[in-house]
Each structure stands twice: as C-alpha cells, then as structure tokens.
Amino acid sequence: MRIATLQIAPKLGDIEGNIKRADELLSKGIGVPDGSGVEAARVRVEDAKLDLLVLPELALTAIKPYLEPAGKGRSATWARQTAKRLGCKVCVGYPEVEVETNRNGDHEEKYYNSLLVLDEQGNVLLNYRKTFLYYTDETWAEEGSAELGFHQLTFPNAKESSGSLKARAEGEAAILPPPPQSQDKPDKEIATSFGICMDINPYRFEAPYTAYEFAHRVLESKSQLVILSMAWLTLLSREELDALAEKPEIDTFNYWIQRFMPLITKQMNHSRNADDADADVGSTDADKRIIIVFANRAGEEDGSPSPARYAGTSTIVAVSQRQRTTDSNSIVSSPSSDDVQSSPFDVKILCWDMLGATEEGLCFADTAADPKMAFQLIRARQMQLAAGLGFSKCPYRTLIYRDDPILKLSGNMTRLVGIGYRDCDEESSGTWKDY
C-alpha cells in the first residue's frame, strides 16, 4: 500500500488560506529514498499512485462558524477534488453539524468532531464521529459511536513497484514498462479501524490506563489497517520545539505506540496482511502486521491561559508480530489465557517515515518496501541485561518503556511511561532489514 499523511500547521479560521497551504504542500511532492533511506529524488504526488491520503483532526477549519454537514462543506469539497485528482482515498478531519427535527417539528442541531472518508471518485465511504472526547471537545461536540469506526476499505491492485516510483522520480518513466494490470486479480478488501486523537486514550482519562479500549477494538475487529486523524498536543515550550525543528518528538511517538500495547502483548487474529493480501498469515510462524497511520498536525494556536502547541511527528508504522525465536532479544509477549496460541512471539515496530515536530509536508510509506527504521521495545529495568547481550550493536532502534510502579491506577494497574529511545551505535551490516 502507498499511504501519505499531510502534516500541516493550519491557521485558526483561515479556511481558504489553509486549503491553499495544503495544496502547496502537496505540490512539493514526495521524497523517494535510496537504499540507505536517504532521500534521493522527489516525485510528483500525482505520479506516486497513492492508495490513501490522511489529514489531521479539524485539518482545514476551526469550529463555529465553520461547521459543515457531512460530505457537503468546504472540507468535503477540497477532499473530493483531491481524491479525484490523485486517484486515491482521502480522509479529512472536520467539524460536523447534523440537523434533526424533534417531535414538535423544531430543528435541533448536533455537533460532532468528525472524520470524512472519500473514495477515488469522491464518494463518501464513511463519516466517523470522535467517540472519546477531549475536555475541549466536550464544550461543543457530542460523542460518536465506536462501532461506526470500522469499515472494509477496497483498494485496487494495479500500482507501480517501488523501483518504478524511484525511476519516475529520476526522470526515467519513459523507458519503463507500463504498470501491471489487475484484471486477473480481485480488489483488496482491507479491514480498517478509524479513530480521532483522544480515541486512543482512556475514556475521559477516568478509565484505567491499561483498559486500551481502542486497541482492543482493533484486535477484536481483525483490523489490518488503523487510520488516526490527530491534533495531538505537546507540553514542550516554543523554544524546545524550535530546537527539535525537523526532528520528531520521540516521547510522543513512544506514547502512541504504548497506547497499542495489546497489539504487542496479544495474538493478532487476522489471516491476511494489508500489504500482501494474497499471502495467508494464519499459520503460527507467519509475520502478521497491523499498519497504523498517525496523521498529526503541527504549529501553534493562541489561547488562554497558554498557547496550544502541537507535536507533529506524523508517522506510518506497522506492528509486526511473529512466533518468537530462541535468539531474539525482543520483548516476550504472552497471549492471554483465552488465546489458542500459547507460545510467546516477537514484536517489531516497523517505521517507513516520520516527520519532525514542527515540519510541514507529506509523510509517505510504501508498505511493500523495506521500512526506514525498525524499533523493538525493552523495559527500562532490562537495560543492563540488554547491554550484556550486545545491545549497543543491536540493529534496531529501541523504544524504552518503564514497568516500575510509577503511577498506581484502579485495580493495581501500573502505568507504562515512555522515557525516550536509544539509537544503536552501529548497524550490523544492514541485517536490520531481516526482521
């Protein structure tokens, strides 16, 4: 699959200016990496043959007076035009108004923080409404229904290979053979879960941290793809964000991954991966993946008592899980007692791209290609043990998490708190790709 997120720093209330900025960022195209992961060339977004483009929460508009009926407002118009132009599905966050008629014949308005999903022809596939509201959402929006956050997305099979995309970026498209046709192959049906920002947190921050409501729904629905439209805040100061510039905020990334801990500790139940629908991964030793798209915004909004600053760091990853081998240094994950599989398994976090905290632009993944980075998770208290196993030469970047009793929650649950990541000192002859 070819997936892109558009990380943008929209200006509050400036709809036309934000749309112009979105088009400008799309016009800059997509960076195509070389074998080492360094950008070697750029290709026009029209030539990238995207399957999916995802924008942030409330991407182009503010709230009042910019509320839109589902599929009919300015956000929908832009998304429809973009979907047709790029030939891909487009997901855009927007503020929705629904007008209902009560028993007395009076019109009543309900407001939602919504995500509109359109197909390649600009038809509405889904209108998902945010279920877990942030405290600022509660001042204006109604809760949506979590059950409506699942959809079977259909994708055509005819896409160019990664090699073709790189050649097109280098101006060699004229000598390339035409892309393979898909008449002999049925379209791919991809089980997809949708969420908006706060949906991945505990309900109202009152549910136990380890309830993992959204992640459990992903597993229970056998989703192969997760799409998250976000306006995720950061606690960093303006100076700290400026210092990061095009570097991601790793604490935010670490936290996002931890909100999907059930995908790491419990057995995945789907039988096909989204990026290889022809391969059966139902066997115990197969590599199962769930792709997660984190489409966040960047920038800063004035507010009282302090400005709202956004974490950026949009990324496209896959949680990759397979039966554990004896020579692995990864976390050992034990399935719950109601799982058929009783063996632990290895988990890697594969990452194709990640934008900086203040960066605007496209985050792109071709999930059929090798990822730029692979992460493994390790408990903080295992650091010395890991070092004794040659951790510094490990070919994986490592997300470190803490399982000490930092914060006790109901039921004596322990909160896992991200404390950063560590780069390996050296790569072991490129074998990190042998995940």
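Second entry:
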Amino acid sequence: MLKLNVMKRFYNVIPLIQDKSILNIILYTLENNHIRSDSFESAITTNNISPRTLILLDKDFDDIFTKNVLKTVKDQHLHPCIILAINKNYRYFLSEPLNPLISGILYKPFEIEELFQILTIDNHAEPN
C-alpha cells in the first residue's frame, strides 16, 4: 500500500485519466490517504466542485471531451484548480496559449508523489 504524508489543502480531487490502470492507482492512493475523489459527473450533480477542488485532466482524451469539461466549468461559474496532464510529446500543444481555466501542466508519465506535491500547495495562501 502506498501511503504518503499529505497535508490536505484540496477538498477533493477529480482525476479524469484515460488509462484505467493509471486511474485506478490514483484513486487507490487518494483513498488510502483519505482524500476524497469524485467522478466529474457526480461532482457536477452534487455541486461538489469548488476552489478547493483539483481536476486532473488528461490530454489523451479527445478535444471534444476536454472542451466539454472546460465549458461545463465555465458555464457553471466553477473555480477549481485544473491541471492538464500531457505527454512530453505534446510540447507542440504548448505553442498556443492555454485555456485560462487551466492552472498548470503535469508531464506524463508522472510519479504519484508529483501529484501529491500539487495537492500540498496552499492555493489560498496570502501573497507576500
């Protein structure tokens, strides 16, 4: 069992990962560290997306799926932290500006510890 020392700064995590085996590892690790995870559909239905929500959005999904997620977030005036998970071969993707809803990028393949580093960032810290 992978157990990490994590300060829970995010209320919940919504991993939208195409590879089911990677998704299962992420879900298992989140559960073992007592971090709530939701499906996107469930979180939308239950109004469970807030600024304390991290959405990990896999660029391997087709553009229609990605655009629908971003459109839903925008149309419902939600303000989660959205991290785009992209393969290093997608660097050409970065030649255009990112959608302003995307807070950052995580290059795949990534270690689960990299995800937990994002989770421990205090996204509500006072600026210096």
